Amino acid sequence: MSNRKVALGIDFGTESGRALLVDVTDGHEVATAVFDYENGVIDEALPVEGEPVRLDPEWALQDPEDYLKALKVAVPAALKAGGVDPDDVIGIGIDFTSCTMLPTTADGTPLCMLPEFRRTPNAWVKLWKHHASQPEADRINEAARARQEPWLARYGGKISSEWFFSKVLQILGESPEVYEAADVLIEGGDWLVWQLVGEQHRNASTTGYKAMWSRQDGFPSPDFFEALDPRMRNVIAEKMTEDIYPIGAKAGGLTERAAGWMGLRPGIPVAVANMDAHVSVPGSSVTGPGRMVMIMGTSTCHILLGESEQPVEGICGVVHEGVVPGMYGYEAGQSGVGDIFGWFVDHAVPPEYHEDADRRGISVHKLLEEKAAGQKPGEHGLLALDWWNGNRSVLVDGDLSGLLIGATLSTRAEDIYRALIEATAYGTRVIIEAFEENGIAINEIVASGGLPERNPMMMQIYADVTGRAFKLAGSNLAGALGSAMFGAVVAGAAQGGYDTIQEAALKMTRLKGRVYEPVADNQAVYDLLYAEYLRLYNLFGRGKNQVMKTLKAIRNKVRE
Amino acid sequence: MSNRKVALGIDFGTESGRALLVDVTDGHEVATAVFDYENGVIDEALPVEGEPVRLDPEWALQDPEDYLKALKVAVPAALKAGGVDPDDVIGIGIDFTSCTMLPTTADGTPLCMLPEFRRTPNAWVKLWKHHASQPEADRINEAARARQEPWLARYGGKISSEWFFSKVLQILGESPEVYEAADVLIEGGDWLVWQLVGEQHRNASTTGYKAMWSRQDGFPSPDFFEALDPRMRNVIAEKMTEDIYPIGAKAGGLTERAAGWMGLRPGIPVAVANMDAHVSVPGSSVTGPGRMVMIMGTSTCHILLGESEQPVEGICGVVHEGVVPGMYGYEAGQSGVGDIFGWFVDHAVPPEYHEDADRRGISVHKLLEEKAAGQKPGEHGLLALDWWNGNRSVLVDGDLSGLLIGATLSTRAEDIYRALIEATAYGTRVIIEAFEENGIAINEIVASGGLPERNPMMMQIYADVTGRAFKLAGSNLAGALGSAMFGAVVAGAAQGGYDTIQEAALKMTRLKGRVYEPVADNQAVYDLLYAEYLRLYNLFGRGKNQVMKTLKAIRNKVRE
Q1: Model confidence pLDDT, tens digit, residues B6-38
Q2: Cβ contact (<8 Å) for A405 and B402?
Q3: Chain A residues with beta carbon closer than 8 angstroms to that of B348
Q4: Any domain includes B153
Q5: Contact B117/B295 with Cβ under 8 angstroms?
Q6: B149 lies in a domain?
Q7: How many other CB atoms sit within 10 Å of the CB of residue A145?
Q8: ipTM score for this prediction
Q9: Same domain, yes or no: B203 and B328
Q10: Is A521 within 8 Å of chain B by CB?
């Protein structure tokens, strides 16, 4: 072993798995490599031989084989690219999309790998964005409300079709033989750690945020599950485990077999699995209260640490040790952000803009930003509600829809583009204020993810609208970096790593130099506009005017 | 003189003048010719030699010389094209945009033709869409409200920047020397008739709808004008006339000079001038109550005849004998219709649609119509308020703006296009209901103008939304045809014409064969959607939620 100490983070995303090797001393990113999943997101037909097995709309599956291939391809490639001696790798952390779950046998074999279940969609991995479990989510919410289940408050009063038991209930209802054959129902991240260390060590984060578990109260009761379906009464005892490990805990040492896949030495300590968004928090240098991390992409995930558990309206969840050890991790979200800007560029921007952008070799987003950046706040005269994809926080209502007001014959594409960006900033301000109204301070915001780096105008608008300084995570791979940091933590100081995630963050992360500070003149105008946004938010979002729901109800009826 | 009897209608539009020769016996359109105004709409700089004289935004002027050229070019061209013997022309009618007005000397010379005023913008013809007189309109409305002027109710409680005295007040305020030098202030149509017959014969229509005159009460009082500006106290006595002739009256016989311009014989009877939209009413075969005419183009003008005068909220005006003799003519309007669809196509439709339309050699409008026509009402899940250009009737509020609600990531251009068309149909229904609530029945609607012919989907939507049968005017030149009909009326039956406009309409007009009948299933869904439209209409249009005005106020402030 040389003197160099390297931690390995592996980030399992929706389309690919990425390995990142990080110098533990200073956080230098030594090398990275990506493996694009061969079967990617499976949403049309199963990747099987013979007669095609088609999937209904709203389905989204994955192939567990792809995850193993990512280990076998991306890790050796990164080692090679960085010229890293495998002996220098002192610890491994992984993060995964969530809730992405699968049924397996007792030895961890995914049921979809067994010949008898190969053609059964419910035997495959259900990806986080599998939305076909909405009826099951509705049943869970109904039953929980009827029984006044105490855990419902932790999730802002409503659970999602994306979550663990919505998916389990779909398996049971549609493919009881799969449910029956499943010795284990498990999150993808936990399954992967199991493959690495040879035994199950489930993590508190995904279990807490997506499977209604808490350290204090455990899972929902057998009575509750029985109310959903009598066959499900003992689902925890039969197919899950109540041994749940906090984030930052060690799951075990790398097995011979797994070491062989990746070209590493056996025995390297492996951390319990983490969620891709959540692991970005320490990866963005945040390990304590007062700083919110926003992971901004097609949607935005807001994560904040607190020292106690407070009820906050409409958050996605609060989990003890769900993000870093010793803290409560609060999660909120905006279900449409980059997605809305992308929709606009694809479906509402006239040809001249596309031609102009093409000619100049820039994206249409960049062109619109250029045209809109010179405007003063309020100059376009528009206001939007950013609900093109519903509202996650704080209203938790997928039936809400987008609104644009103030259009005139002089309105141009850049005006609407800017108004949409502003609307998402107002949406963030509502979330910040919901936290602060419950005594959870937010002094500063660190943005990570793909959007912030590319959109300086957007970042300035967010600072002006929220009245907070916005900083940018130093790494563009904050997820994989966070995982590597947990690898360093499970190695421990004695092995050249760190004993706490706080120490790891201090040494291994930094913020970018540029800070977006709110500009007082802009803030003054945005305060006026935000007051109008809030009025519309409450009017259309809280039941006073039901037009959005009526429109969806009429639409659904005429489409029948 | 042969046995053929032909009437000449001349339609003075915004961009051109059109001559139409019509066989009086059966309404057959024998020939037509157009003259495009050389100076068109003057909105950047005066068409003068030397140092340019630039115009402020919102200005829109015209050159009276263009009107005379239209006579000299289009009429001979139509005679020639139709092989019409000038001796067969028995009567002449003209219609004009309004309120388009100018200052002249006592002999009718436009002041802008005098060298000393050639470079003074206020000496030129102010076109109907000259909007720079908004501050003057505000002053007139304020003074009228303060003095509780009885005439205000006839105009739905508010007069417009486009109207006669708003423009006069601007001349007086900005160019008192022009006001001083003007012996006459006159509508363009009345000025043109003066040129044809050699003396002033002002018409009741433009005077009634745009200059606050009524048969019963005359003009506003000298005291009122004095309240606006002491110099204006005697504006009526000094520069106008109280001799006002009903629509259908004869202004006189064609002078030698004017006959020479057009290649016609002197003495042909000429009718008093008419408004371009209003003359479409008999031109669309409507000469009595119960049938509303909608002249649909960039905006829509709704005209309805009644046997008595009733107050109706938010109409543009009601004038006795303003449309046909013996009847009250009610006018209402929607300030953005084709304009909104045009805005959408120009500024919010993505390149694929333009490419597809190009490839197929059809307009983008037609392509969007094709894509949207298969939808059921309510299927797109959208609702709009059609206020991109403010709201004329019934709210009379230019500060309102457009709203779109219900957008999702699945929303496509054809969905929004259809929602915009539907919004204008809901706006029409509000106007119909305002009339009916005041006891003025509307059983059927006749559409004329450019839009209805080109947009069958739109017509069906209008029928379904309003629950009324929509018919189409038989002529695509209903304005020029209506003018020719009034030419036949001033000729009279003794000369081969008609004694009343009703007889003329019976013989000279027809409707197109196609009738758009409401479909019950569609009506049922549109009733639900209209209820939502009305809720938003009242919410945002009647002061309960002021966001549209706040947005404009903020915009105006930051633009300062």
Answers
A1: 999 999 999 999 999 999 999 999 999 999 999
A2: yes
A3: 348-350, 413, 416
A4: no
A5: no
A6: no
A7: 12
A8: 0.90
A9: no
A10: no
